[in-house]
Amino acid sequence: MQSLSRALPPRRDPAPSRWAYKMQRLWLTPAFRVFMRFGLPVLVVALVVGIVLASQARRDALWGMMTSAKDQVTERPMFMVNLVSIDGASPELADAVRAKLALRLPQSALELDLNAIRVSAENLDAVARAVVRLGTGNVLQITITERQPAWVWRTDAGLILLDDTGHRIAGLADRADRADLPLIAGQGADKAIPEAMALLQTASPFESRIRGLVRVGTRRWDLVLDRNQSILLPAENPVTALNGLIALNAAENILARDLTSVDLRNPQRPVLRLAPAALDALRAAHGIKVPTESKS
Amino acid sequence: MTDLYQSQRAMRNLRKAALQRGMIAILDVGTSKIACLILRFDGLDEAGDVDGVGSMAGQSNFRVIGAATTRSRGVRFGEISAMNETERAIRTAVQAAQKMANVRVDHVIACFSGGEPRSYGLAGEIELHDALVHENDVSRVLAACDAPDIGEGREVIHAQPVNFALDHRTGLADPRNQSGNRLACDMHLLTVDAAVVQNLLYCIKRCDLDLAGIASSAYASGISSLVEDERELGAACIDMGGGSTGLSIFMKKHMIFSDSVRLGGDHVTSDIAQCLHVPFAVAERIKTKHGGVHATGMDDREMIEIGGDSGDWEKDRRQVSRTELIGIIRPRVEEILEQAAERLEAAGFSHLPSQQIVLTGGASQIPGLDGLASRILGQRVRMGRPLRVQGLPQAATGPSFASTVGLCLFAAHPQDEWWDFDIPAERYPARSIKRALKWFKDNW
Fold it and tell me: Using the beta-carbon criterion (under 8 Å), do A18 and B91 form an inter-chain contact?
């Protein structure tokens, strides 16, 4: 008789199945573990993202969702900029800055690139420096420091106003509009403004006679006086040469005489050019006869 | 023999690779249990060749990080009889050990006790070319050993040079770079049944493991349970396992003889099962709980419930006294010891200077065995336990793990074997490129 009280269940085989054994060994392989822990999740995520983004419609929907969420934040009223106030500029310049910036208002303060606005404003010739900031009440405040015209530069294209660093400010229709400013001319004159300034200060004894300065060969200056007199200055040390001439003028008063030019280019040997009538008179005084027919 | 030489060399290379990776598994395929240890090597010990006892007897450079034991299945007399079952048992042990160590092992060193090991003593002698022993002279003298007829279907598992003699000086451990004219060597050859090795190899291969070495378990238990001086002066180790009892005689730190008796603890259990008409598992429990070999008056009064599951009250309530149980156990244990003594006698153990005998293995745990053994084997018998190994769990330190621990030591400090030396040039076929290369290598 079989005992019923202890009907033991069949004993379970403690041995792992072949597959369980192989899987355990595989799982204990370091490379496999690393792959399962890092490689596989990355792969799965990449796969899912790839599948989701494969269709254009889903991509667009996702993009729309993102932009609308972004807009909801940025377009809240407390971030909106409605006004631009431009200080420190003449009305024409303020208009010019407004036109240059071309801001679409109202615009969110979060989307404004203040630095770009500043750079853009400073790109205008007439603007020396611009300070851009968001003021209270979301007003975009642009404080502009204008360039002060200091020179008038006569070029082939017309008259140009320059500031004291030689930077262009604006064109000028008529010289008479800014008769108070000294005139310069010649190619490259704007590059040598400091020198011109020094010359002009040096030439202050006959300030009333000065017509302007001419840059010759982008290298040296000619000081042009009235009565078509010109003083040819050397490229090196023009101020010294001019000082010499001023001393000479104070002693001999030569500039009052009938000269067309004073050539100071060689500091050792200033050369004077007389006007034709004066030359004839000088020759006559010295008793030199010039055959008039051969001269013509 | 060259085929075996190649396969053993391949195993040695695998073992080197495993040591480089620092991870190797030890598998003791026994009749009653299968034990798997996983060793982690902390780097090859450079000073491993130093004679004498180093720190922790020179085995501090590895650590047991995984250990598992499972009941053996499909193994009889230390030989695989049902391969599927054995494969499952090996898988169980390996998986549990891997789980404990949390690493994967690919290389395994195995030992087994079956296969009817037979020992041969070989001698070889050569004249030296110049009066100095070179590396290749050692391989030449090993190759010069006259190969015995080991029989059909047998294979060599150990071929260890145990002694070198140079002219009239003998007992040299390492003759290299010594001067002399004639070099002689003694080699100990251990052969086992080839089919047993093949079965084990195939079984391990089916578990996705590579066999990186194979050893006789008698040798392994000798390494672990004999202490240094016993191994030096000469001693015999008797490893009483479940299905077979292995004998190994050590002398001058080398194994010089090994044999096995195909009787073990399982036979005691089956005796009990037959005499008392109980299942095998019950008999095993009674044996381990109440077993002994010396009956005293006290044992007459100690009654053991045998129990049963037949439903018959008379049968299920049987009792035996411990004296009766001892009466069943003792003759079988005596038989095992007598057979072992017979084998030792046949090997000439009585001529050895030291007559020390160490009993180890699971079946040696019967209480009172030392008294019985000293009556049969001689006065100098002691019970052996394996050496302590770093990281070994407490449960695996008993004498039943002698061969497992010995295998760890074998893996850490392998004995030079014949196949560790290169084949001398003369053994290559004539007109071979290899032979020419070898000649150049040896002579330049």
Answer: yes
pLDDT of B420 > 80? The answer is no
Superfamily of domain covering A149-290: Cell division protein FtsQ/DivIB (3.40.50.11690)
**What's the confidence (pLDDT) of residue B132?**
84
Measured between CA atoms, how close is A8 to chain B, in angstroms?
Answer: 12
Hey, which residues does B23 pair with through a beta bridge? B40
- Mean pLDDT, all residues of chain A: 86
Task: Name the band, by pLDDT with cuts 50, 70 and 90, for residue B262.
Answer: very high
Query: Taking an 8 Å Cβ-Cβ cutoff, which residues of chain A contact chain B?
Result: 1-3, 6, 13-16, 18, 20-22, 24-25, 28-29
Instruction: CATH number for A77-146: choose from 3.10.20.310, 3.30.450.20, 3.20.20.80, 2.60.40.10.
Output: 3.10.20.310
Q: Which residue in B417, B413, B415, B369 sits closest to B387, CA to CA?
A: B413
Alpha helices in B217-321 (DSSP H): 217-225, 228-233, 265-276, 280-290, 297-301, 313-316
Peptide linkage before A106 cis (omega within 30 of 0): yes
Q: What is the pLDDT of residue B261?
A: 93
Q: What is the pLDDT of residue A93?
A: 84
Which helix H or strand E contains B8, and what residues bound it?
Answer: helix B2-21
| Tens of pLDDT, residues B385-397 | 998 888 889 988 8
C-beta of residue B293 within 8 angstroms of C-beta of residue B369: yes
Q: Name residue, tokens 């007829």.
A: B149
The two tokens of residue B243 are: 């299905």
Asked if B70 is an interface residue toward chain A (Cβ–Cβ < 8 A), one would say: yes
Give the pLDDT mean for A142-158.
Answer: 87
Q: Sheet harboring A210-216: ordered strands across? A: A168-172, A158-163, A149-155, A183-185, A210-216, A220-225, A230-232, A259-263, A271-274
In whole angstroms, give the CA distance from residue B323 to residue B305. 13
Give A37 to chain B, closest Cα distance, Å: 16
Decide if A77-146 and A149-290 have a common fold: no
Residues in B closer than 8 angstroms to A6, CB to CB, are: 309
Q: Which residue of A has its CA nearest to B316?
A: A3
- Domains, chain B: 119-193 (3.30.1490.110), 265-326 (3.90.640)
Q: How far is CA A225 from the centre of its chain?
A: 36
Q: What residue type is B17 in one-letter code?
A: A
* For chain A, domain boundaries: 77-146, 149-290
Tokens 């975009």 correspond to what residue? A140
> Residue B157, Cα to own-chain centre: how many angstroms?
11
User: Any chain A CB within 8 A of the CB of B208?
Assistant: yes
The interface predicted TM-score of the complex, written ipTM, equals: 0.78
The terminus-to-terminus CA distance of chain A in angstroms comes to 163
- The answer on pLDDT for B57 being more than 50 is no
- CB-based contact, B178 to chain A, within 8 Å: no
**CA pair distance B381, B341, nearest whole angstrom:** 12
When pLDDT is cut at 50, 70 and 90, the band that residue A7 belongs to is: low
* Chain A touched by B429 (CB under 8 Å): no
